[in-house]
Amino acid sequence: MTSTRQHKVSKLLLRELADYFQKHGSSICGGKMVSVTVVRISPDLGVAKVYLSIFPSKDLDVAVQAISDLAPMIRNEMGKRMRNQLRHIPEFIFYPDDSLDYIDNIENLLND
């Protein structure tokens, strides 16, 4: 169960991270389109798990690792953007969101 505060902070982070990756995602990942699908935040608001959908999904782990290496810089940028909304910016842990690949796999199995 997530509290109301967790829900509000995760939606705020989702919106700001999506805007950040819309502007800077292709330069970080070498021309790939990066979108934020889900942000889950811990109860103490100290850690945020960010799930990323990357298209094309070839070399997905390399792209997520490149973004993870820049996590402190992204956190700093989020601190500048949200300094009036949040007192403490959580640490980001980035994960690949492979739900689209899973859907394609299920669809291919159903068509066969």
> Could you state the oligomeric state of the chains shown?
single chain
Q: For the CA atoms, what is the radius of gyration? A: 15 Å
Element pattern in H and E: HEEHHEH
CATH homologous superfamily classification: K homology (KH) domain
Low-confidence stretches: none
Q: In what range is the share of β-strand residues?
A: 15-25%
Query: What structural class do you assign from the helix and strand content?
Result: alpha+beta
Number of helices: 4
Shape: globular
With strands numbered from the N-terminus, the spatial order across the biggest sheet is: 1-2-3
Write a structural description:
It contains 4 helices and 3 strands; from the N terminus they run H-E-E-H-H-E-H. With 112 residues, the chain is α+β, with helices and mostly antiparallel strands. The chain has one domain (4-111): GMP Synthetase, Chain A, domain 3 (2-Layer Sandwich). Strand 1 and strand 2 form a beta hairpin. It is globular, with a radius of gyration of 15 Å.
